[in-house]
Structure formats: C-alpha cells, structure tokens
Amino acid sequence: MYKNRKILKMVNWYVLLISGAALIFFVAFACIAPDAFSRAADTALAFVLKYFTWFITLVAFSAIIFCLWAGFSKYGKIRLGGPEAVPRINKFVWFAIALTSGIAVGINYYGVYEPIQFIYNPPPFLNAAPLSSAAVFGALKYTFLHWCIHPYSIYTAAGLSVVFLIYNSKKDYRVCTALYPLAGDKIYGAAGNAVDALVIFAIIAGIATSLGFATLQIARGFDIIMGFTSNLYSWVVIIAVITLFYTLSSISGLHRGITYISNLNTVLYFFVLVFAFIAVDPVGVTELTITAVGQYFNDFINLSLFLDPIEKTGWIGANNVFFNTWWMVFAPLIGLFLVKLAYGRTIREFVVINLIAPVVFSFAWFGIFGGGSILLEKFYGANIGELIEQTGSDMALYAFFKQLPWSTVMNVAALVIVVLSFVTLAESMTMSISAMSMKQFKDVTGEATPPRSISIFWGSIMAVTVAVLLSVGGTEALQTASIVCGLPIALLMVLMMASYYRAMKHLRQYDDYSRGDLDIYKKDNP
After folding, report:
1. Could you confirm whether domain 9-521 is CATH 1.20.1560.10?
2. pLDDT tens digits for range 314-337
3. Where does the chain cross the membrane (predicted)?
C-alpha cells in the first residue's frame, strides 16, 4: 500500500491524464466511427498541406543550420555535466543506440522500396521517364533527402535544446525544460504540462506510423519464410507478442535492455550491409552511390527548399512534408532519450555521434540497398518492382534478397533486424514517455527507471494505437496521423531552438559550471 501511494505521488497527473485521455479518445473514435475518423483526418491533412508546407520545410532546413552552429561554434566544447563529468557509455554503444532507436525501423522498410518506387514513378516535376538516368539519380537524391541529413538534424536539434539545460543548468528531465530560457520557472506550470502532454500525444502517432510499417514488414517476413498469411489477425498477434518483449525490456533499465538489443542489431545491420554490397555489384554500387551523393550535395539547397509552387503536383506534400513531420513528432522524445546517453560528452560530440555518424551510415545503407536494387532492376533483369506491385510495399526488402544468393538465410536475418528495430524503438520511446509522466528524475544522468506500472501503461497504449490505425486505414491512416500531429511540433521546434540560442548567449546565467567562462572546458576528459 505504501509503495502504491509513493508511485501516485511521483506521477505528474496533469501530463498523464491529458495525453492519456486524448489518446484514448483518438483510438475510440477510430474504432467506433472509422469513416468519420478518416474524413476528419483527411480534412486536417489537407489543411496542413495547403497552408503550412512552407513552414514545415523551413523548420526542417533550419534544424540543419542550428546543429552545425551548436556543434562547431565555440559552444561545442561545453561538457555536459561539467568539466569533470565522465561518460558512462562508450561511443560505439552510444552510436548503436542512437542509430537503432531513431529511424532504424524506417530504413528497413524504405531502403529498397522508396528508390524502386521513384525510378518507376519519378517526381512529376522532374519530367523523367521511368528507369531513365534522370529517374535513377532523382530517386537516390530524394531518398537521401528523406533519410540522411534531415531526420538526424531534427533529432539532434531537439536533443541539444534540452540536454544542456538538464545537465548544466540542473533543470527537470522534461521536454518543456527546453523552453526554460524563454519562459523561466513558469514553464513548470500549466504551460509546461500542456507542452509535455502535446509531445506525448503527437509521438504516439509517429510511433504508430513506424511500428505499423514494422508490423507489416514482420508479417510479410513470416509469410515468406513460414507461410503465415499477412492479415489483420497476424498483425494483432505480432503487435501483442512484441509489445510484451519491449515492455519487459524497458522496465529492465537502459544498460540491461536496450544496450544489448542495440548492439546485436547494429552488428546485424553491418552484416547484411556488407553481404548486399558484395553480392550485388561492388564496383557498380560504389560508383552509383558516390555519384548520387555528389549530386545530392550539389543540389542540396534546391532539394531541401523546393515546394513545387507552379505545377502543384502534390508530390512534395506526400513525400518531403510527410517525412519531415514524421521526424518532428519523434524529435522531442528522441531528443530526451538521447540525453540519457550524453552525460560527460561535449556538445560537439553530441552532434558528431547523433548526427554525422548516423548520416554516414544512412548514405551507405541507402546507397547499397537502394542503389543495389536499382542496378539489379535495370541491368540484371530483377523483378523487385513487380513483386512490390503484386504484394505490397512491405515486400520490398525480401524481394531484394530474393534476387541474391542465400536468400532464405538473408530473409531470416532481415526479419530479425526488423523485429529488433521494432523492439528498440518502442522500448526507447516507452522509457522516455514514462519518464515524462513523472514529476522529476533524481538521477543526474537521467537513468532512473520509472515505475513498471507506468511503463506497462504506455507500452500498451502504443500497441493499441498501432493496431487500431492499421485496422482502420493501413499505411494511409498512419501517414495522415503523422503529418497532422507534426504541425504543432514544428512550432515547438522553433521555440526550442530559439531557447537554446538564448541559453548559449547567456551562459553566465544558464551554465552552473562555467558561469560564462568557457576556458574551464579546455582540458580533455580522461
């Protein structure tokens, strides 16, 4: 009884009840009146795409500039936790968790699907014929745009906005803490509770999108390998079983659960990456990837800011805006989760490990899987596009391995990777959402574990939301929910970056260790 009372006092009931009630209403609405739910979602989506595409695009681009300034200006040498703080996690483990808890689910699903989709259906404003050189390079450039610099910049920007204030200003472990330099102590009142509740509500839609795609891909893997039909019933079973795994892992603590899973998953990622590189065409893949990366950087500003204002084909909204808002709904809580890994590191290291290192990996992943699938399709008579057309987008990765030796073994490896990515993402978000539901974290490294009952509650809410959205509208419902929820988070991202800038310009007030004297951070950490 005493333990239950203690837990009740620890919970931030404003955040828990507001976000929890909103999500329960959202899920119930979709279950009871799916047609009305779909119409309302489509209306909201049309509104966002008509009036705010420009805003979301600018916010995403601004996050890149913000991260580069934060990491490589004079403020980059600030050590999180003070000049004597010692890192608790080595850099490989840090990179592994940052990689697999961010967009790992997405790169499994889209690594082959998006480039193949784009070579057969190029962006209409490119006026490129299917399978032409223009279509091939356009496909890879836009795939890089969606999956490389932009997502990790958005995540890193959100993390930067809160990590400094938590470790060097000793503020609360909450997303709303990022706004402290703008609002002061008032942010821990009703406004802060509203921000945290909004973030939790929005990210459930983002998680539902990611985990929905993962569920479809896992079901397709079991269908191919074991003959289990991919349908609503198999989706529900998969979600239920994996929910049990990630909930158990999330209550076991950061080092015991997510570290082991992330390390194993990262090793498997490199294994399939090397295998695909060797098995397809090493020289051809290398040449195609280098050329496409070069074109991507050459056209980077145009790709990032082009809004199709004349032809208005709708392609930008369905693709660029969708991906940018998808990352944004994840960003505040991914950023909060990254705080757990950054104690004792400098701000510059935070940018390098969370932005630059994963981006390099993403170039390699999409170059090898995307570029490799294009080469197989164009020059080696592969039928990846046909298999995707016949079966669905969740077939893409398995269709790629079907063209290569040891396809059965590699399909099993791909299935394991997707399952582990599902578990890692859901686990990291369960930990962060659960922490956000508490009044505060006492541990300076942000590693305190919330009560198990809170983790179980949020793990269950995520699972139910995924199942409901898949049942009422499949991937279209998932994408719509993500874009609509991304708009308020885009506005929050602007405020977070402005707040961080203010904190850096007033270090005497916000850095408890330096009081504005950056010279204390000159010495290297042992």
Report:
1. no
2. 899 889 998 898 889 888 888 888
3. 54-72, 92-112, 144-167, 187-212, 232-248, 260-280, 325-343, 350-376, 412-433, 454-474, 480-501
